[in-house]
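2024-03-11 09:14:02 INFO receiving multi-entity request
2024-03-11 09:14:02 INFO entity count = two
2024-03-11 09:14:03 INFO echoing inputs for audit
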Amino acid sequence: MFKIAVCIKAVPDPELASKIKIDPKTGSLIRTNIPLAINPLDRNALEAALNIKSTQGGEITIFSMGPPQADTTLKQCLALGADQGILLSDIAFAGADAYSTALTLASGIKKAGDFDLIFCGVSSSDGATEWVGPEISVFLGLPVVTLVSEISEVTSELIQLKANIENGYRKVEVDLPALLTVTMELNTPKNLSFSGIIKAKKKEITVWGIKDLDISENLVGLKGSPTIVTEMKPMEKKRAVEFIEGDRVEKANTLVSKLFEAGII
Amino acid sequence: MDNNKGSVWVIAEQGKLGILDVSLQLIGKARQLADELDSSVEVVSLGYECNLIGTQLIAAGADKVYITDDPATAVYQAELYTKLISHLFIQQQPNIVLIGSTFMGRELAPLLAATLKTGLTAHCTDLCLDDKGILEQKIPAYGGMMTIVCPEKRPQMATVAKGVFRQQEIDNTRSGDIIPIEIPVDFKARIRTLDIVNEETPAIALESAEKIVAGGAGAQNIEGWNMIEELATLLGAGLGSTRPAVDEAWTKINTMIGQSGRMVNPKLYIGIGLSGEQQHMVGIVDSDIMIAINNDEQSPIFKQVDYGIVDDCQLFLPELIKKLKAHQEK
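2024-03-11 09:21:47 INFO inference complete, emitting structure
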């Protein structure tokens, strides 16, 4: 039986995230109450874990670092088939960059025990650094393969897979335990089912704060982050648009003449 | 190590045709930063049967080059590469380290940063020094630009995509030191790359395309996407995309333009059914003419182009394609 960990992030709903803008006066973010959702690639990570559980047997633990309201997102993962959820939530964790996020998640995973496999999405829709997965692997001393697009064989000792590279893929074999970051090509996540939601009611979400982890307060959150944001500036728009008017035929004609005049066609 | 005068490093990646363009571009940038800091440029490049690499890296701007020439480092191996480079960095104490945002760089950079307990900024679109000599790393976010710094930990590390910086002139008269790196004999890898398979590359290489037609979610479905593709073919343009089009599986990820995709530098850019998110727009460096087709007059894309057409692309493109064909037959 595989012990599998899946790291997920509750992100501002990606469908609505473009509404977050920088205030030109204060340089801070204007957030219009955007609901949290599971980071899309983390759905693929969870699906990969569910596939191994259904074919080989296993137990899936979800890990997430985030605000208390992220527990709704963890509950969704339980309804999708994960067995338990651990939310790392504490005001001390706030303001973390990728490094201190990875360190915090790694301490949570360490405390929960040994895992054969850890899955992460390649990146989050709001941070998009791709650093958290590989950095967790370093803190746990595990081998990592990023950008996994296919899992071909899993035994108790090793896993064979394909991972993306520029214009192709690499075939990789990795000893377990290991951490994998997955792409959307790996699988198609299933939707929530009614029976899953009912079963999830009996499952638990545990919340751990800084005191529950074996880590110094100086290493987490903003204090533990090597990088800081010093400035946010709205982009200067340098071009003045000329709208091409008229009916559809006229617009197409005008555009073709503009391209011709510019020597493009 | 707490000085901002230390050396500026590049991890130079080797491909089938030698040093990758992005690595040469980063050496050019490193040279500029090092000159401002009155410091040196040092490069590490791991490979096999690559005896000319060292002189090539020096001609590109390096003062010192650390290389391996060994079958064990012929292809990227995460654990060995991390061990060799982190060991070198612990000895040499770099101030700044630049890495290309290639598949290798995107995996190796966080492995090194976590091993060295330092910060790492992803896919920077500009790098400069503040008055204290600290590296200001710019990334697009939330419709604007964010500046990130790593004030205390060293090295300051950043990944940068191909095409963000221009390659500097090669100077074959430059001199420098080439220093071989020892490979541990008993290294046991838990991750083994068994094979590397190259698939087809896009018909027109986006980075060198003079014209780009890019599509997004506004294509609505595969039929709409096919129209965008037809327009690109008709214009002899490279076909680019935004994240939603890739997510819908209308196109492959290697067509994605932007911060985490490809950087392009065309004469003409036509954006169709996309909203002009910064993550995409920063991928278009200095296009002469920019055109957008979008059904929403309020779309932010119209603040970033020269000509705008407000229309449903599935209805407008057939008309445009017809007119272009008629023009070409003239």
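2024-03-11 09:21:48 INFO post-check: Chain B touches chain A through 84 residues (CB under 8 Å).
2024-03-11 09:21:48 INFO post-check: The first strand of chain B starts at residue 8 and ends at 11.
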